[in-house]
Design brief:
- By secondary structure, this protein is of the alpha+beta class.
- The protein is about 50% helix and about 10% strand.
- It is built from 19 helices and eleven strands.
- It has a five-stranded mixed beta sheet. The chain has a two-stranded antiparallel sheet with strand order 5-6.
- A hairpin with a 2-residue loop joins strand 1 and strand 2.
- Helix 14 crosses helix 17.
- The longest helix has 27 residues.
- The radius of gyration is 24 Å and the shape is globular.
Length: about 500
Amino acid sequence: MDLLLLQKILLALFAAVTMAILVSKIRGKRLKLPPGPFPFPIFGSWLQIGNNLDHHILADYAKKYGDVLLLKMGQLNVVAVSSKEHAKEVLLTQGVEFGSRSRNIVFDIFTGKGQDMIFTEYGDHWRKMRRIVTVPFFTNKVVQQYRREWEAEAAAVVEDVRKNPIAATEGIVLRRRLQLMVYNNIYKIMFDKTFESEEDPLFVKVKETNGDRSKLGQNLKYNFGDFIPILRPFLRGYLKICKEVTKRRLNLYKNSFLDNRKKPSSTEGMNNNSSKCALDHFLEAGLKGEINEANILYIVENMNIAAIETTIWALEWAVAELINNPEVQTKLRAEIDTVLGPGVQVTEADTHKLPYLQAVIKETLRLRTIVPCLLPHMNLNEAKLGGYDIPAQSRVLVNAWRLANDPAHWKRPEEFRPERFMEEESKVEANGNDLKYIPFGVGRRSCPGIVIAMPVLGITLGRLVQNFELLPPPGQSKIDTTENTGQFAMRILKHSTVVLKPRST
């Protein structure tokens, strides 16, 4: 960095310090702000906390400051909510007031400053986008239309694992094959497209570009530029890479999928609802002038991460927990054999007859909440919460993981115990009917993906457990479940090798 730029930054720092002191004195008398750690001028609490605002850190601060707390992260106000009562306020009672999304500087690039569905501000545009995406993607009609496809994909996973001689001895990185399955499930709905194998050139290209986006987006190191804008010159190189990756991804979606579906030969079935894919619906909405091509591309961008990556992460966590808790795996296998009969393969319809399978999925999403603080909410205008004043454009984080792991509301929450959902928590569902358990959120900005995530998880885990004994690799007694927390997601750190011993049929 040259001397002139450094001088400008120092002058800006001085001016910002002066302004911050004046503003805090003026506003501090008027606003009743939530409690939180001491904020220094300019930097706020960033000097104490750093770039990481994960669910564990927020849970620890909640014990000290209460269930509604304020973290002054540079110029950004971050409000953390850790109780059912206040979560209800944010997500339901004041769902409109807190219904917008807070984007960071990287997700501004990834979403074209909110031209997508997930990170756009609450309002008419969001309602229109939500409707356009929900109809071809997230309804029970879609489940019934594609469930046999999902069952076939799960059967293909079982067949490929059986054919792999090292799967039963040394083990394989199961995630890689499950990744292909999940891509095929989503791409079939979205593009009427599937990939033949992990070596398919287009699959390799899509997977790599999505992987680049995921790594860049989940990285915590760029947060300082989001908190303290005058430090953003230090992120020029990083943000340039983000723009290059975004351009490459959008061009890939356009050239490989969007333009193909626009061709007459690909859209003959557009007048026949049974032949439409989701992209056809999006294109029709574009022809009606409801959305433009950029919106369509950013919707596709959303689905490549929100629908695909989250499902893969959930499957990884579930497999790891089944291996590390063999008594749960044995009990689940016994339920499937008893209810369906030995060798009868689990279907989507069967998943509703298997309460312990449902409990295993729910317990995985409780202990390993994939998006532990949900996606960040934002109030466009000054609001009230828990008797406190919430400054306009605050980033509001609802700590769903804390709600689902609070000893005050859960018996032995640190244990992986699916039985809880058949015993003391038998009435608690994944749809948020009890706000202590909201893995998909609840309210206006809840995740509509629950409609397809739950059956896909059920079919896949059911098929794996009934066909294989899942074990850790040789020399290990358990799978490493160290967390890898990013901007929004909680993933498993290592893509573990898994031994899958076929059961005798």
